[in-house]
Amino acid sequence: MNDKQFKKPSFGLSVAALGSIVLSLFFCIMVFKTVSIQVGLLLGIFFITLISRTLGYRFEDLMKFMAESIGEAAFGLWFFIAIGAIIGAWMAAGTVPAIIYYGLGIISPKVFLPAGLLLCSITALCTGTSWGTIGTVGIALVGIGQGLGIPLPMTAAMVVSGAAFGDKMSPVSDTPNLTSMTAGADLYDSIKAFIQTMTPAYIISLVMFTFLGLKYGSGAANLAVIEETRSVIAANFNLNPLVILPIVILLALNLKKFPSLPAMTIAVISGLLVAIVFQGMSIPNALEVINSGFSIETGSSYVDPILNRGGLQRMLWTFSVAFMAISMGGILNKVGYMEALIADLIKRAKSVGSLSLIVMMSSMISSAAFGEAYLSFILNGTLYRKEFDKRGLNRAMLARLVSEGGLMMTPLMPWTTFGAFTATTLGVSGFEFGPYAFLNYLCPIISVAMSYMGIAVVWNNKANKGKRNFSEIDLTNEPTFAE
């Protein structure tokens, strides 16, 4: 395929391409409401295919772009399968039910939200996976929260906030590794830059969750629901402390920096063994949990929906959203729509704040349009490298902005891979829990605000510390980078 035969998209055409996607999703989700996200994504692919045809692209070319994009995201897609298997296996093993059972016995409603935030943060920080945290500890906390009378959207927001924190900050997570790699920055320099903006955002979020906990946990907990949940779990599961072994094994493997997918496979196998040994499940039934998920009829209409989860089949809805969103992102990326949108904006950036805002918005829009944060990391990290070098800004700051824009808001968008997974796993859409996901939107807002004030700006030349406008900076002794 010869690239010279294709026209480059103009700014107006790029706006039309992204606008067609936004409108397709908006009408399906917000206006018609009964039309699924998948239909909105299909319409978006249809419209950008038609628009791309005006640039000389054939249908075969666009199919190749979609296939390449799916190939690049294949590792992430396998996580859907792994997480579905883990949830089913750990439910069958009694691992998650045990956490719910003991958690309801010791956690007070007043401290549930801040304590849950810290627990999810530590878990994701140790394991390096937000999805794994949501699919295991997150599900348990949802069950505990329901028993304590905490509204589901608040619990889900707390889980997602903590999971996103750990994913963004952990040196064993793929997010800081990928953003640092694509930006051309040192991993630990990037994490130091992350800490500067994440710290105030996290403290404020912790205070806000504490306030909500005092407000919603000030009354008496729903003792009847708590007692029903604990008695049903105790009657249907062997709650020997050893059933917690699968989560201990997964945490230990991740702390030793064992590869994530093999570690998750071991976690599934350990869960199935616990289910066979402690819960008396037959080998065929235990193996089928991987595909169909865990299913039980306890006679409690309240407890059954909490326990009946997991399996590959329950992940197919999420997988289909991810597949189409990534395919659409492949066209947007390869044709060059995002580059056309930001080319003129970069020239207009006269201050650190305005450049930070452009990178942040570009990363958010990319994640929303591509349906996948990984593609956004790769595009934006590469796209702004030379601009940051030219303006004397350290690439660690670029990695920070790309991760804040590309990662933090994606769980709130139900059509993205992260958003679809969260909605399926926790049973509540990002549109519903979004208002309470304080950390997810506070971090990007605080980051840009600090850039405008000249705070937490990472310069190559320390003599520029505190400066905000590019016209004031000293560009002598700037480092050079091999591309």
Question: How would you describe what is shown here?
Answer:
The chain is an all-alpha fold. Among the domains are: 46 residues, no CATH class; 241 residues, no CATH class. The mean pLDDT is 84.
Number of distinct beta strands: 0
Characterize the largest beta sheet: strand count, sense, and whether it forms a barrel. none
Counting helices, strands and paired strands, the structural category is mainly alpha
**What fraction strand?**
under 5%
- Assembly category: single chain
What best-fitting shape do the alpha-carbon axes yield?
globular
Radius of gyration: 23 Å
Q: Tell me, rounded to a whole number, the average pLDDT.
A: 84
Q: Figure out the total of helices.
A: 24
The span between the termini is 25 Å
Order of helices and strands: HHHHHHHHHHHHHHHHHHHHHHHH
Low-confidence stretches: none
Query: How helix-rich are the residues, as a percent range?
Result: over 70%
Task: Provide tags for this entry.
483 residues, mainly alpha, globular
Outline the fold blueprint.
Elements: H1 11-31, H2 37-53, H3 59-72, H4 74-93, H5 95-106, H6 109-127, H7 130-148, H8 152-169, H9 174-183, H10 187-216, H11 223-236, H12 245-255, H13 260-278, H14 283-292, H15 304-307, H16 316-335, H17 337-348, H18 352-370, H19 373-383, H20 385-390, H21 395-407, H22 417-426, H23 430-433, H24 438-452
Helix pairs in contact: 1-2, 1-17, 2-16, 3-16, 4-7, 4-13, 4-14, 5-7, 5-11, 6-7, 6-8, 6-10, 7-8, 7-11, 7-22, 8-10, 9-19, 9-21, 10-21, 10-24, 12-13, 13-14, 16-22, 17-18, 18-19, 18-21, 18-24, 19-21
